[in-house]
Amino acid sequence: MKRNKRHGTGTLVRKGNIWLARWVFAGKLYKRSTGTANRKEAEKRLEEFTADFQRDGEAATLARQTARLGGIREQIRQAEDARPALTIAAMFAAFRDSTRKRHEWGASTLATYQGRYNVFRDWFTENRPAIKEARHVGKGDADEFMRLVSATRSAKTYNEFRAFLSQMWTALAEEIRADGNPWEGITRKTLTAPGAEHERRPLTVEEMARVVSSVAGEMRLLFALGVSTGLRLGDCACLAWADVDLERGFIVTTPRKTARHGTMARIPIAPALAGMLAETPGAARRGDVLPELAAEYRRCPKLVSKRVQRVFTAAGIETHSDATGRMREGVDVGFHSLRHTFVSLAGNAGVPLSIVQRIVGHTKPSMTGRYFHESDAALSGVVAALPDVVTAVDADVPQDAAGTRARALPGPGAASVPAGASGASGGVLDALAALLADMDAGELEEAARIVNAARRAAKRREGGAA
User: Fold this and answer.
1) Is it true that domain 199-373+407-466 has CATH number 1.10.468.10?
2) pTM of this prediction?
3) 247 φ, ψ to 5°?
């Protein structure tokens, strides 16, 4: 670095090929690039720099330079504003391909996000046609859209819409070039306590008979899979033959909802379902069990869901509740009702809920409990199975409600499915019986107690009918 001789009240210092101006004013050192490698040009600019200080003083000079810098920044901002930004129409593709999203999506998640984005895009196209670029979406626009979501969907779905849109804005902040995220200030809705929210109800055996008799082909097998396995719609529609072992009588699959946790479901195949699956020749058991429905579901899950709802309606089953008047919260019957039906049939037939939990892939017993709906017959059977502690002569040897002295419970090895089970629940029970061999001692003892109580109740009901 070579220093130039003092020139007036400043000095030129060569930095690389450019001259740097240095001067002192009121005991304070200032530095500024002249922006030139020509010495004479640099000396002129040094004189200009120092002349401002000598003429106007430090405060006025700095204020003028700040204003000039502000003007330059405003010009840059205006130039940036004039440059096209990310449009609403192109947002989802950019978000899908972004490396800044939280994690990679599976096919089901991608379809769900695509559906939410489509609702958002279509609303803005219809109600805010002048807004083309995402940066022009304001807080008022966001509030108006979320009011629509609130009026037509559940609190859970409302929160999911808000989280999705906020995540999209955050991941694409550089492309959007907006001052802020209009979705961040929107308050989440408080969800109702577990068990208090509106849920699907299980179907009765008579309702299931009407549904199955009204469909054929892949749709019939789809409903049979739902009620016989408890799998969700996407897992049934996209079930692969590689997950079906007809020889051993089990379906072993990883449900989409728990795929990230690696949770697998090992489901015994009910005899009726096994017969339907066996109709497909062995050589043809490749790829998807339901190829047409699988392709349609992967393309648009809502199309399959709507087809399912039409089946329920055609069978004369009311699918919506009039209690709430909301599109989502008022749904009483849907494909997910088959999951409730499976859990309820098994539970009411005496299968321990711990076993049912393993089959349907619930991670917590409380979740299985929410899907279990006690039947009137099961509730009555429990009361009828209680020992008579009111009129029993010998309190040490309790009697049952019919006056018969209670027999000792058989050992764990005697646990079995109640004899004579038939109908829709019998098919499930026949398949579930295979699981009893895997039960530990505690589970077997509990199963024995429930089974024997159910047997005694059944005998009493038969005797009363006679």
Assistant:
1) no
2) 0.48
3) -65, -45
